[in-house]
């Protein structure tokens, strides 16, 4: 009996450490990240990643919503600290240069308090957008994500099985 209790204790301790410090699964409840992520997807998030590195443009991150830290959101990093961001004619411009690449090959709408005019991203903060700009509550409406609110980097869709993919 003692061996069973010890085994269960160590298994639970390891599971706790992995979940809270290494990797955790998250459920996608909305269509704000379509077509990259769709409602019902489950993703793995590397919680340790940003202890080693800073977020890069294009990373898909999970973070605590700035105005309600009990709510977690998932969005794509668009602008980094100190950069100037402007949404114009359906595209995002960073320091006056339109974003290029597959991750940003979509139409973005310049709506919301932070999406209509040029913004300078504060130190230790990030401007994030959903891939589905038409249906995303993101930095255009509520501002910037402080680095301290970032929980980790989404790197893998693991559910449902037909949707398994590495996220870029």
Output the keywords.
168 residues; alpha+beta; eight-stranded antiparallel β-sheet; four-stranded antiparallel β-sheet; 3 helices; 12 strands; 17% helix; 36% strand
Tell me what the structure shows:
With 168 residues, the protein is α+β, with helices and mostly antiparallel strands. 17% of the residues lie in helices and 36% in strands. The strands form 2 sheets. Strands 1, 2, 3, 4, 9, 10, 11 and 12 form an 8-stranded antiparallel β-sheet that branches. Strands 7-6-5-8 form a 4-stranded antiparallel β-sheet, with no helix packed on it. The mean pLDDT is 91.
Describe the structure concisely.
By secondary structure, this protein is an alpha+beta fold. The chain has helices at 2-22, 49-52, 139-142, and strands at 23-27, 42-46, 60-65, 68-79, 84-88, 91-94, 97-98, 119-120, 125-129, 145-146, 150-159, 165-166.
**Overall spatial form:** elongated
Rounded Rg: 18 Å
Unreliable stretches covering 5 or more consecutive residues: none
What separation lies between the terminal Cα atoms?
47 Å
Beta content comes to: 35-45%
Q: Residue share in helices?
A: 10-25%
DSSP E strands, number: 12
Largest sheet descriptor: 8 strands, antiparallel
Roughly what is the average pLDDT, rounded to an integer? 91
Count of DSSP helices?
3
Give me the strand/helix succession: HEEHEEEEEEEHEEE
Class of secondary structure makeup: alpha+beta
List the helices and strands and how they pair.
Elements: H1 2-22, E1 23-27, E2 42-46, H2 49-52, E3 60-65, E4 68-79, E5 84-88, E6 91-94, E7 97-98, E8 119-120, E9 125-129, H3 139-142, E10 145-146, E11 150-159, E12 165-166
Antiparallel strand pairs: 1-2, 2-11, 3-4, 3-11, 4-9, 5-6, 5-8, 6-7, 9-10, 11-12
């Amino acid at each position: 009996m003692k061996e069973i209790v010890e085994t269960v204790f160590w298994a639970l301790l390891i599971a706790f450490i992995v979940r809270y410090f290494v990797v955790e699964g998250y459920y996608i409840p909305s269509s704000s990240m379509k077509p990259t992520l769709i409602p019902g997807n489950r993703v793995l998030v590397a919680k340790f990643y940003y202890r080693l590195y800073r977020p890069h443009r294009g990373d898909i991150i999970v973070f605590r919503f700035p105005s309600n830290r009990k709510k977690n959101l998932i969005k794509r990093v668009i602008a980094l600290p100190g950069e100037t961001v402007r949404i114009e004619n359906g595209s995002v411009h960073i320091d006056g240069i339109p974003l290029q690449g597959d991750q940003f090959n979509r139409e973005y709408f310049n709506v919301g308090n932070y999406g209509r005019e040029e913004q300078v991203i504060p130190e230790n903060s990030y401007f994030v957008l959903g891939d589905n700009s038409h249906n995303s509550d993101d930095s255009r409406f509520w501002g910037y994500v402080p680095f301290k609110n970032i929980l980790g980097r989404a790197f893998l869709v693991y559910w449902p099985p037909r949707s398994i993919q590495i996220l870029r």
